Amino acid sequence: MTVLYILVPIAILLVVIAIWVFNWAVNNGQYDDLDSPAHSILFDEDDPAHLAAQSQHDDQPATKTPDDKSL
Amino acid sequence: MCCPGCLAVAQAICGAGLESYYQHRTERSANPEAMPRVLQEELELYDRDDVQQRYLQNSQSKQNNGEQPHIQLLIEGINCAACCWLIERHLRAQPGVIDASLNMGNQRLSLSWQADQIKLSSLIAGLRRIGYTAHPYEPDKAAEQIATENRRYLRRLGLAGLMFMQVMMATMALYEEFDQDLTEGMAHLLRWASLLMTTPVVFYSCAPFFQGAWRDIKNRRLSMDVSVSLAIGGAYLAGIWATITGTGEVYFDSVTMFAFFLLAGRYLERRARQRTVESTARLVNLLPPSAVRIQPDGSSLRIMLDELKTGDTVEVKPGESIPADGRILHGNSSVDESALSGEYLPIAKRTGDPVTAGTLNVEGPLQIEITALGDQTRLSAIVRLLERAQSDKPRLAQLADQVAQYFLLTVLLAVVAVGSAWWWLSDLSTAFWIVIAMLVATCPCALSLATPTALTTATGSLHKLGLLITRGHVLEGINQITTVILDKTGTLTEGRMTLEQIQPFDGHDAEQALHWARMLESCSEHPIARAFGRSVQNANSLENVPGQGLQGDCEGHTLRIGKPDFVSALGQYPAPPYPDAPGQWLLLGSASAPIAWFALNDRLRSDAVAMVAALQARNLRVVLLSGDQSPVVQRMAAQLNISEAIGNADPDEKLAYVQAQQARGEKVLMLGDGVNDVPVLASADISVAMGNASDLAKTNADAVLLNSRLLTLVDSLRVARRTRIIMIENLTWASLYNLAILPLAALGMVSPAWAALGMSASSLLVVLNALRLTRVKVQTPQQPITSAVEISA
After folding, report:
1. Does the keyword field hold Cytoplasm (chain A) (predicted)?
2. Residue B16 is nearest to which of A1, A43, A53, comparing CB atoms?
3. What average pLDDT does the structure give for chain B?
4. pTM above the 0.80 mark?
5. Interatomic CA distance for residues B470 and B223, integer angstroms
6. How many pairs of residues across A and B have Cβ atoms under 8 Å apart?
């Protein structure tokens, strides 16, 4: 049971680290938006249609400009 | 596709390969036509360095060496998660955008981009193309404070939670019931370790309880905070004593557990209410962000609103908001003052007439000389009235605090009596430990969780039904309401003109007449014109005569639409008499003869009658209070079967009326939408704003009817009643538990292990009971509709 003399201080040290990590996360805004991340995983990042349109868009960036004026 | 606007949005979305937006969206998107127009010219102002500087986030730009600007944009038109995805995807695909992340809760987009690659104005214009409006967001003090407060709450909660688990582990070994047979040195170590870990919880996490208790004691009031502080403080001090002397029990696990449960309850309640509330008081939104100033040399220049000075001349085109109070120098037009007065028809204005900031120019271009700006405007006067009303607002008593008073008195009396009895029978140290055991055992954990948990779940289910609660007292207060005051325009009615009836003259077809009327009205921004809907073809050589009507060529005919005199003047025939029916009548005519009458009206919402009937069935007094002309108000009151109706009331009179009712002892619920309702909303015991209300009304209301469905209000009454029942159940159970354990503690039979077990069990029961509020609601949202319809039928 004498091992407790080491384990208890280690437990305290661990909880201090855990609190420090938690505070870091809070201050970094990790908990500011709890709604949208839950949904965002549902969307396909590598949607083929989107990738195709994007590469097309990269090829001809000039096509976008006339629309800006038509607003 | 209902209109060209929707078509353009859909094309832009599909063109970028983002079709899966349509698979994932759970709500229909807003009609792009209904959104405020953003002018390209105005957007370009945001590219100016001095303008951008106001919105840029300093801390962020420092990190990036100032190379990449970082800005927060407030996005309008977000309905569901698919919108967020669409906006983020769209922006990230743009060259030069480094990061874009959207917070769905407060609808704020944080965006960083490379200034040399793409302009901010073209990013905003791109968002506009996929159907969203974005404004640069200038964080104000209040919003910042709420955000830091939220983070502080979360840090307190996290600390208490992590410490609670560790302390529980350490103290469990000390429990007699587990018979660990510890050596004296080991027990000492565990006591000191748990004291060390409890201390930050008491001083950091529990600080708000002690502050609240101190405030209440100074006000000579006993509240839940006093009772909580007494239990935590007592048990903590006794624990220190026990640790130093090495005798007696430590209740540190109970202290930290109690702190964690309570903080969790309060944090969840707070979060449930603040979901979308953060969108701060943005009065400026009624005002345009920029204005066109006429320079002394006659040229015009677009400037930001705050660069405007008294005495300047500005030009306001049709469809734009008037930026400041002023006097018309040139031009004839009509001005939509509905936001300020509740009058839904535009008012004709001529040279020399005064105009008010925040109202909308409808028909012709105006040149205005600015007479008052910012704080001096009529709009700001309403805001000041609002502040006065808020400070006079009566407070509704909260159930939990009432119970806490009785509870605390009972416990304190019992503790004093039992403590002195033990002192007399035995010795001081026995009496001390008995008193501590009683304080811990009766620690009102379940009692103080009883109401927050019920309120949190009820707030959540009401949000699903479509009522967003922004202030804490609504759910409790709504049960005490005796009078419901309703605004007319925009609340009971839809707040816009709709075409009700077409009466063609002999030899003409209604379809054909409507087609021509659409062609004529299609280009106009007037609310009357919008009632006709959009047409693919436009009339040629269109002329607009403000206050009279329109003239144009449609398919070879020269036609006029508008006032009868104006129309008949085209063909020199006598004007036909108005049809005998209520509403706004417009005549369409050619050079030879009149063609058709069109009846327009601000239509009642489809569930207005049902709502009034359902409210009256609950024995609530219903009053119609409007700024509109009396006859219209009386007619509508008759239609809705409301016996009390007051018309022609300006914001001051409305406020005075509500305060007079409150002085008579009535508890008032006000349902309204416009800026003119804002002071009344602030003074009513409970205020509810419509979802399409002005921002000022929404941010100052206690609750917002998100879907603008009036019957949701009736549902909410039902939910509030259920919530109250659950709260009373919870409070009864918690008090019974505490009273039952009091005698056991008084006999010295409650050890730390039993105290911890009893506290968790009773808290769990209270939470589970509160959770019933989520289940019931999802099953029966439709039920009140049918019952309300039966009543009205």
Report:
1. no
2. A53
3. 79
4. no
5. 23
6. 117
Residue A65 has a pLDDT of 38
- CB-based contacts of B17: which residues, under 8 Å, 6+ apart? A47, A49, A50, A51, A52, A53, A54
For residue B662, tell me if it sits in a domain: no
Q: DSSP labels for B544-578?
A: EETTTEEEEEETTEEEEEESHHHHHHHHT-PPPPP
Dihedral of alpha carbons B463, B465, B467, B471, sign:
negative
Q: pLDDT tens, B357-384?
A: 878 887 778 888 888 887 777 777 776 7
Last residue of a domain, one of B372, B392, B416: B372
C-alpha distance across the termini of chain A, in Å: 77
What is the C-alpha to C-alpha distance for residues B48 and B435, in angstroms, rounded to an integer? Answer: 70
What domain range includes position B363? 309-372
- pLDDT tens for B679-693 read 888 888 888 888 777
Residues of chain A in Cβ contact (below 8 Å) with chain B:
1, 4-5, 8-9, 11-12, 15, 18-19, 22-23, 26-27, 31-36, 38-40, 42-44, 47, 49-54, 57-58, 61, 64, 67-69, 71
Mean pLDDT of the region A38-61: 59
So what's the pLDDT on residue B176?
77
The alpha-carbon radius of gyration of chain B (Å, integer) is 32
Q: With beta carbons less than 8 A apart as the criterion, state whether B113 and B96 touch.
A: yes
Does B166 map to a domain? no
Q: Are B694 and B284 in contact (CB under 8 A)?
A: no
CATH number at residue B347: 2.70.150.10
Q: Residue B114 is which amino acid?
A: Q
Amino acid identity of B29?
Answer: S
Quickly list H helices, B71-136.
Answer: 81-92, 120-129
Say which of B125, B154, B166 has its CB closest to residue A26.
B154
Contacts with B236 (C-beta within 8 Å, 6 or more apart), sequence order: B198, B202, B252, B255
Residue of chain B minimizing CA distance to A42: B24
Inspect the interface and report whether the beta carbons of B85 and A43 lie closer than 8 Å: yes
B270 located within any domain = no
Q: How many domains does chain B have?
A: 3
Q: Which residues in chain B have their CB less than 8 angstroms from residue A7's CB?
A: none
Maximum average pLDDT range among B35-44, B464-473, B613-622: B613-622
pLDDT reading at B390 higher than 70: no
Task: Kindly report, residue by residue over B189-217, the tens digit of the pLDDT.
Answer: 889 999 999 999 999 999 999 998 898 88
Cβ of A32 within 8 Å of Cβ of B103? The answer is: yes
Three-state secondary structure call for residue B488: helix
Last residue of a domain, one of B352, B372, B392: B372
